[in-house]
Amino acid sequence: MANDKNEDQKEEETKTLQEKYDELLEELDSKNKELAKINEDLEKQKEETQEYISLSQRLQADFENFKKINEKKSKDIIKFANEPLIKNILDSYEDLERALENSKTEKELRDGVELIYSKIKDVLTKEGLEEIPAKGEKFDPFKHEALMVANDENVENGYIIDELMKGYTLKGKVIKYSKVRVCKK
Q: Sorted alphabetically, which SUPFAM superfamilies does this protein's record hold?
């Protein structure tokens, strides 16, 4: 009986061990499946990461190309910004050349030069150039440059007596100050 009991006990222990072994195998199988899923997800993440890196590199390259193209366009815009003005002045330049070549008398030359002066003035006015009024105006240091001062009984203190050189604005911005003589008493 003791043997039967021992055998029953051994059988029971074996059965319990077998059950634990089976449970552990199931748990191991489950963990292996989880690990396989994690590895699969990790591979997908690696692929996505690589795609993002590749996309980022392409975008960076595209952006660099975009910057280079815009830089070239900007340089071209600056380089050729005066083209319309030059084209307009070229007509007057050629007129001046013809006037010099074809004028027989001083009057013809003067008439030709006056016509050319008028054309150039029109071109510059269309481009936004305006003369700064000076003579008889109150001195304005933002528009005028006083080269001389003088006392003139006919002119109020601080007003311009003479304009020595004309000044100009381009679309409202002073590009050349009028050189003037100012009355100072």
A: Coiled-coil domain of nucleotide exchange factor GrpE, Head domain of nucleotide exchange factor GrpE
And the tokens for 124? 């510059």
One domain for residues 39 and 95: no
Across the chain, which has 185 residues, the per-10-residue mean pLDDT values are 70 86 91 94 95 96 96 92 85 87 89 90 92 96 96 93 96 96 93
Strands (E), the chain: 129-131, 144-150, 160-165, 168-170, 173-176, 178-183
Buried b (16+ CB within 10 A) or exposed e, 164-176: eeebbeeeeeeee
pTM (global) more than 0.70: no
Q: Which domain holds residue 96?
A: 82-127
In this structure, how many other beta carbons lie within 10 angstroms of the beta carbon of residue 89?
16
Our count of domains for the chain comes to 3
Q: How much is the pLDDT for 10?
A: 80
Q: Does residue 90 share a domain with residue 46?
A: no
The number of CA neighbours under 13 Å toward the Cβ of 137 is 16
d(CA 12, CA 18): 10
Whether residue 113 is found in the same domain as residue 154: no
Across-strand partners of 178? 144
